[in-house]
Amino acid sequence: MSSIRPAALADRLETDSKPFVLDIRPEASYGTGAIEQSHNIPVYNDLRSGDETAFRSRLDELPTEKDVVVVCKMGIVAKRATKILQDEGYDATTLAGGMHGWNGYQNNSLSYKLRSLWWRVF
Q1: pTM for the full model?
Q2: How many angstroms separate the first and last alpha carbons of the chain?
Q3: Tens digits of per-residue pLDDT, 9-66?
């Protein structure tokens, strides 16, 4: 399963080949803070409980010609969505650490710095 680190996503969002950022968190969570230019399909709770139906019914909303980066709270449920997308032929990846990681990157928090060090070592 592939993932992209927040810093790498930030870099990609500055290029002409921007990925399609899919935020699967509930609307309320998305409304309190999201990655600029992201798109919300609120299927987090369904996927978390193992129900793929709602997500699969909305795949036609996703571009097939762009990379898709899936975002959730911590990245765990996003991995399920990423797997579904990859199985359906999308070039999809998960945002490592989810919105928690993104916010840490944006705030340059100590926990993000430590996680980044861990990623470099392993």
Answers
A1: 0.89
A2: 16
A3: 999 999 999 999 999 999 999 999 999 999 999 999 999 999 999 999 999 999 999 9
> Is it the case that residue 112 has pLDDT exceeding 80?
no
Amino acid identity, residue 104? G
Instruction: Provide the number of structural domains found in the chain.
Output: 1
Structural domain containing residue 12: 3-121
Residue type, 85: L
4 close to 96: Cβ distance less than 8 angstroms: yes
At 94, which CATH number? 3.40.250.10
SS (H, E, C) the chain: CCEECHHHHHHHCCCCCCCEEEECCCHHHHHHCCCCCCEECCCHHHHHCCCCHHHHCCHHHCCCCCCEEEECCCCHHHHHHHHHHHHCCCCEEEECCHHHHHHHHHHCCHHHHHHHHHHHHC
